[in-house]
Amino acid sequence: YFILIYCIILFLHAQTLAMNVVFLPLHSGHFITVEEQVQEDQGKAVLLGPDVEQQDWSCFRMVYQVTGSASLQVQKRTDGESFDQVLWTTQGPSDSWLIASIDLQNSTEMFKIVIEGKLGEEGSSVSIFEIKISDKYCIECEFEEDHLCGYTNEWNRYMNWRVGRSDDTALNDGTGQYMFVDSNDTKSFQEVAKLVSPMTTVPMSGCLSFQYQQYHAGDHLFTLFSRDQAGQYQELWRANLLENNNVNWSPETRVWIPVQVDLKAPYPLELVFEVSFNGPHGGYVILDQISFSPEFCNAGTEPMFDPSVANCDFESGYCQYVQTQTDSSLWRRVSVRPNIYTAGDHTTGAGSFLLANSRFSLQSGYVSRLFGPPMPGNQKYCLKFFYSLQGLSGTDQVLSAYLYYSNGTKQEQIWTQNYKIRNVWIAVELTIQSQKNAQVVFISTCKNIWSCDSVGLDDIKVTLGDCALLAPSHCDFEAGLCGFTQDKEGDSGDWMLARGPTPTSYTGPRGDHTTGVGHYLHMEASMMLAGHKARLVSSSLRGSRETQCLQFYYHMYGSGIGQLSVYLQTGEENQDKLLWTSRGEQGISWLRASVNYQYDQQHQIVFEATRGASVRSDIAIDDVVFERGPCRGIYDNLIIIHICYSRYRDELYILFVHKMHANTKLNAVEMERVVC
């Protein structure tokens, strides 16, 4: 079925597809456009669709045109979510009407499609001609639709796929359509025609099916490729040269050959049906009935690789990372309690991480190797991890990352450490691709006793495809304040964007939490008096009946540190609700805070920093994340084994143990004596 959202306008038939162009006669109907007044008012125009519930996979398709510096974005607004999910955005202006195809995964939750248009400089425009949601995958096509499901020719001056009409495999009344390419159009040898599908927008895997015919197969090549956003090809299938080589095509004698190909698209891919001719007598190829099923064609096909097996924060062990005992030194798993001398781990500031080149086992000329789990070849991966130099020498190339191939004959370096900043967790993101099965290996070297830094490693994460951008619900302050604003009425100071250390010595972070060399927000205490406050207010958030999670990282180092608090602001006077607070110096590490709250109406979140007794009172925040549902963290797998109270410290201690060690015999009395 089809769910038609705003307006449907029929296209006139176009016999030929040009590269990324849809021909729309002006008299075929109306279109909508963003008024120039929008630029002067709120700067954007928002089109909100009706409630939609898609229990099956569906395809959103939109015909649009953007000129000048204008932009167009499609978002998904799910009930109960505070932030819209960006599904697609324009990459630049277009000279004519284009088609956007967006896959919508099956879901039982109601949602709305939100289309946001923004005008740029004078003369720019945003227009929409057709919007439609259909119950199928975007790469599927019977070529009966006037815009041909978004399939386009990759431009060739002489050789292109064209639309044919006959009693094709879909319709038996003589009105069906198919795509074909004929060698009679060739003007020179080695002409190539490429028919390109819409780019997939969500991960998918299964069985791709289509039907084709070919004549004079020995004089041309018919090949199916996948092509990623970087333009890299991978051959999926090639036609048999002997099939239909001498069969003359006619409605009576034609034979449609069915094809099934296993397709794995863990990241955005497009299908390329390519026909290359050797000359003007190379025959023809006909294509029809492209369909897709989420089940693989062959029962023996291995499922799409789950890259999460390579993720590890080292809170509960080494995960699937291993070491060779023959190495002269090993990576050790360590943890540091928050203090003012040593930085803790990257995950929470108080958890565990790996450490190599420890001073406890210092010797020159040794190597520490850490092997990750095997990863299949012919895939593209994004590898992200954090490292920190813990020593004093400040040398470079202490840590490197390699690809180690399973046959053991080759080891390829993909990264080496260059930053010499100490005691700051620095992020590394690498896009890697290998044709062979490989493992990621982290290697730390110590050349001699004078140039041997201890190096920490934490939060390794692997995903399929290129390294993705952050979701709109995640703010790392690298591109500004993400909609956060200063509260000019309720405070006497400002939150300031910073990079590197703060101006005042012995207070504030040395770098941000996201990458170690990026941006964060902080309250500069030297410009305020004791008791003054700086309030940062989020943009308006939609409420939800479900529990919401606010997670962020904070830094409170300095002898005069005051207080950091988080409030729920509901718009009612004097009704801000305290959600979380922390007082006093907490150490030199970035610490993670997780806050659960529930409110079913429009609201805002307020970060309030209060200056302490001295100028050494800088407070910072970074990596603010809003998520649906209760917060998840390392304590999900912990159970309480003992609770005790320290009269000396006036603090309550709760002792945990990980579930995997629940049967370990522990002496609670001894623990209470040591801890409390």
Automatic annotation (TrEMBL):
User: Where is each MAM domain found?
Assistant: 28-140, 139-299, 310-469, 473-633
Q: Which residues form a coiled coil?
A: none
Signal peptide segment: 1-18
The record's section on PROSITE patterns has: MAM_1, MAM_2
What Gene3D superfamilies is this protein classified in? 2.60.120.200
Query: What Pfam families has UniProt attached to this entry?
Result: MAM (PF00629)
Q: Which UniProt keywords apply?
A: Repeat, Signal
In terms of domain of life, where is this protein from? Eukaryota
GO CC field: membrane
PANTHER family hit by this protein: APICAL ENDOSOMAL GLYCOPROTEIN PRECURSOR, MAM DOMAIN-CONTAINING PROTEIN
Q: Per its record, how is this protein called by name? A: MAM domain containing 2b
Q: What is the lineage of its organism?
A: Eukaryota, Metazoa, Chordata, Craniata, Vertebrata
